[in-house]
Amino acid sequence: MSEDRCFDVAVIGAGGAGQMAMLRGVLNHLDTVVFLGDADSTRRSRAAWVFGVENIPGMYDKKRPITSTTREVIRFIEKSEDLKRFLTTVKKAATSIEKRDDVFEISTSGSKKGKDAGSSVSGERYRARFVVLCTGTADLQPEIGGSIEPIFPYANREDVLYCVRCDGHKTVRQSCAVIGHQATAGWIAVMLKERYDLPELHVLTHGKPFEGDGKLKELLKRYGITVHTDEIKEILGDPKKRLEGFKVGDHDVKVSRAFVSMGSLVYNELAKPLGVEVSEKDHIVTNARGETSVPGFYAAGDLVEGKKKQVYTAWDMAVDAVDSIDGKIRKMKREGRY
């Protein structure tokens, strides 16, 4: 890629927010480059581990609906003679971003080559006037027996869930545990009881003190929701068949569903070196249009502070961000500054 070319907008990440930012950029006839990520970065993305979406019309029957929808967007653009000239896709991960004279310079990961992948090709550099960061978050996982691996087979079966707004309805008539020590875990248990009247609910703090206040503790007691503060020693059940519960301390908690509520890992490592403002929980702070404290640098999706962690919310943020960029570019062109 020639370093002389300067794109209008660079979209980093191709999950829910990234797919819409890419589409909106192309539909607005902005010269758009999207960084799809490499094998390592896509594997750690939340989108790669979403196997079903039931709260968005049109995604019910899709396998890995977010990643498959991104591929559909790219195919749609590439089939259009009018649109395809506005899209450049990069199948590498962005590894760093610098800002020089109001232009962002984005470096990518190198690619491995050779039988043993023992050598690598150096990465490339791309330039863009504006950036929309859509790298998202990942759910923190409970370590059980010293590893996070035991939880994954049950998560893949959707016996272990992560988003009560998306998947709460899957717990109907089931016994359920919420894993987490923060007050949020308790409130999720309360919501499940009030919304779906589950027959049995537990909060598993996994060896940490429960942080809920007196009001929350009283509500949990009122609803018969038990808080267990011992460490989770083992997952009960067969990962190929079903979840049966957890060994907590020296006793078993029998449940058929569980939610993990331990917080998030926010993928903001590209933003922090630029001096972008972040919240106490490391989410990126933006204005109403998605622009961060660094002019020209936008963020959309799960990594943004104070927003719902939902695909439709990510889409809305991405549209606002790219439309804001579009307005700025058109104004600069009118004034002869672009």
Compute the CA-based radius of gyration.
22 Å
Pattern of helices and strands: EHEHHEEEEEEEHEHEHEHEEEEEEEH
Largest sheet: 7 strands, mixed
> Which spans of ≥5 residues are poorly predicted at pLDDT below 50?
112-121
- What is the β-strand count? 19
Fourth-tier CATH superfamily name of the largest domain:
FAD/NAD(P)-binding domain
Number of domains: 2
The CATH topology of the largest domain is what? Answer: FAD/NAD(P)-binding domain
The chain-level structural class is alpha/beta
Count of individual helical segments: 8
Q: Tell me the strand percentage band.
A: 25-35%
Q: Which CATH class of the largest domain applies here?
A: Alpha Beta
Shape field: elongated
End-to-end separation: 22 Å
Instruction: Tell me the helix content.
Output: 25-40%
What is the correct CATH architecture of the largest domain?
3-Layer(bba) Sandwich
Nearest-integer average pLDDT: 93
Main features:
alpha/beta; FAD/NAD(P)-binding domain; 338 residues; 26% strand; 19 strands; 2 domains; 7-stranded mixed β-sheet
